[in-house]
Amino acid sequence: MDETNPVEMKLVPSAESRAINVSNLYVGGIPEGEGTSVLKMRKSFHGCIKNLIFNMEHLDFTHVADYEQVDLDTCLLSERPKLALHKEDTELPPEPQPLPSLGQCAVDRAPEYIPNAHQFGLMQGSHFVLPFNQLAVRKRLSVQLSIRTFASSGLIYYMAHQNQVDYATLQLHGGYLHFMFDLGKGRTKVSHPAPISDGKWHTVKTEHFKRKGFMTVDGQESPTVITVGDGTMLDVEGKLYLGGLPSEYKARNIGNITHSVPACIGEVTVNGKQLDKDSPVSAFAVTRCYAVAQEGTFFEGSGYAALVKEGYKVGSDVNITLEFRTTSENGVLLGISSAKVDAIGLEIVNGKILFHVNNGAGRITAIYKPKAITTLCDGKWHTLQAQKSKHRLVLIVDGDAVRAESPHTQSTSADTIDPIYVGGYPADIKQNCLSSQTSFRGCLRKLTLIKDSHVQSYDFSRAFDLQGVFPHSCPGSEP
């Protein structure tokens, strides 16, 4: 007791005392109907217990099989009034009641959609293939479309001959539009000075006619570029690749911007004829567009995004940053877990944010408790930073920091080589540092993991497994 000299007692040897079969371990009290004759009282313990070690194993109260009238993640004793010294006043104060909710979570409204508009960029190979009359574009090409995006890069459309000598494409690069075409004699490039990655709708028209190329954005015309070489005909197949390319198609002559553009694209016309997007020749990872959208990725509350298939090494230090908005009081934000015990986890539980780490010597948790239980489910954006430095944790939410540290200072590294699960995780995957299986519903953005001086930002469209997640588009407007 308190590191003082131990008190020992020898057991009287008998057949019964040689082994104790442990089936259940009760802490703080015993349920009705359970018990043993060696206990002199049945009254439950009143107070706080932590750092419980049983047979050399640190037991984590958040993994209990069952509990009753126990607050698993806080100790309220310090907040109770001091007991009076008078005999009549020595009754314990009443049990603290849960704080009344100061409001309700924001209303979770079903998103509205735009007719005849499609969201691309959900995966790297998102695309439509739309048929058109290739003979009509030989002497003159005019492609017009409407587009809304927050992204800075991606392929908007592409058409080419089978041998890819002749082609025409519109790409977004660095937030600006670049129209390139080749009539078989050399590449002509037209760029437009207007940035379009502002989340607003823009009307774009690209045109090649009589050895000239130009582009118009919202009525503003680019400088005209003279066609390279003496070619006059554009000889392409009658397939317009819209929003991206199939993963098996390798475009050879248009640079490295071949991934699907994270954008909503409305009506498309080729030489004045509207293309039928309802019956594409090919379609992959394309969905409807939200009527009002903002930057972020939407998690519908049923799945997860799985990143880094080869596995992420947490080690001794890692710094996680992200932004989130939700109308729910519960949801998994992120988990990385080994098959043994080493793991880290971020989750929202009953309106609080929990940052768990297990370096192998038991779980430690930093808990952020907002002033009101509904603060974080107000549907507005919140910033989060979770920093692990050996056995110490810092959790910063909207600028407010909380800390925690393990008493096992020699245990400093969470040894994982496992995927990063965001917004939830599969039922058959073990997560040692998450107490909830509730999938996150809401939007996430700007996820980065910083190790040493290496900053790694994660694009959800590059996830190796996506369930119930819609990258690069979040319903609703910025508050």
From TrEMBL:
Signal peptide: none annotated. Keywords: Disulfide bond, Repeat. PANTHER family: LAMININ SUBUNIT ALPHA-1 (PTHR15036:SF81), PIKACHURIN-LIKE PROTEIN (PTHR15036). The lineage of its organism: Eukaryota, Metazoa, Chordata, Craniata, Vertebrata. The keyword Disulfide bond applies. This is Laminin G domain-containing protein. It comes from Canis lupus dingo (dingo). Disulfide bonds join 48-75. It comes from the Eukaryota. Residues 1-75, 117-289, 294-474 form the Laminin G domain. InterPro entries: ConA-like_dom_sf, Laminin_G, Neurexin-related_CASP.
